[in-house]
Amino acid sequence: MDRFTAMAIAFIAAIVAVAGVIAYYLGVVFLVRLVLGLGYAAFAVLLAIVFGILVYARSKYAILALIGLIPAAYAAYQCYVWSQPLHVGYVTAGYILAAIFSIWWLAEPDMSITERLRSAQSLEKAGKFRSAARKYEKKNNYEKAAECYIKAGMLESAAWCYEKAERYEKAAELYEKLARQKDEGYYWKEAYEFWKKAGKKDRAAECLEMYAKDEPWYWEDVAKLWEEAGDAQKAKAAWQKALEYYIKEAEEEGVFWEDVAKIYEKLGEEEKAKAAWQKYAEYCEREAEKDAAWWKHVAEAYEKLGDEEKVKEARKKYEEYRSKRG
């Protein structure tokens, strides 16, 4: 048993012991008065503070705090004088009912009281599609909820429901529609994810292609996806786009020459691949002067270039580095 658990158990035991002593010497009724009185007093103080803050902020909700404060203060007073003990019971019952009503209200915050009392089917027939969707959602009838959300113009909520229902194709279609409506790349990415889950690699590739227009580092993923979909021509076009992106990056940060070289190899352009490997090797050599761990990458680059002498030299330096590290 850890120290915190032991302290918690000791604290609870102490409270139970004190309560037992009070009940034994002063009676159970006194114990109930004490517990309720302290509870209501603390609650009244809290509500008084909240009321003061809301009055200062000129909030319309100050009246609700006042409505809660008055019975709490009265119940605390009755626990002290005990002249009308039934009134304490009435106040307690009132707070319990208020708590139940609040939970019920917060469960469906956008609905009116009449909508809460109607069935999902009744609300749907009446054209209250958003409220009907919420009702269907609570019953885990996600497909019907999605249909109602679509009629209410709430496409993102509908897509989420289709996801819960594992209707990934329908979710993907909705995200495509949102992408076109809102002209936001995020929705293309979502559509791609759901087409992929649905096993539609060609549709997934199309959506990721749209996303890559704004986020070009995804062109490599697009190319690989077209390869998986069996479309060599579109894969090649995507590899060309990925190559353009990596060349720009490599001109600023030499580490990307490795990616450039690999794509040139993929496209069958051996001479250009060789030139890119050379640039990558030179970049790695410069980095190795600052951090000897880079000699490993130097060796790999010159291995691609077929320069055995430089491969041996780089490996030797890398092994020296490793031996020094222990």
Automatic annotation (TrEMBL):
Transmembrane helix recorded as keyword: yes
Keyword Lipoprotein applies: no
SUPFAM superfamilies linked: TPR-like (SSF48452)
Pfam families per record: TPR_6 (PF13174)
Keywords: Membrane, Transmembrane, Transmembrane helix
TM segment ranges: 7-32, 38-56, 63-83, 89-107
Superkingdom field: Archaea
Protein name: GlcNAc transferase
Organism whose genome encodes this protein: Archaeoglobus veneficus (strain DSM 11195 / SNP6)
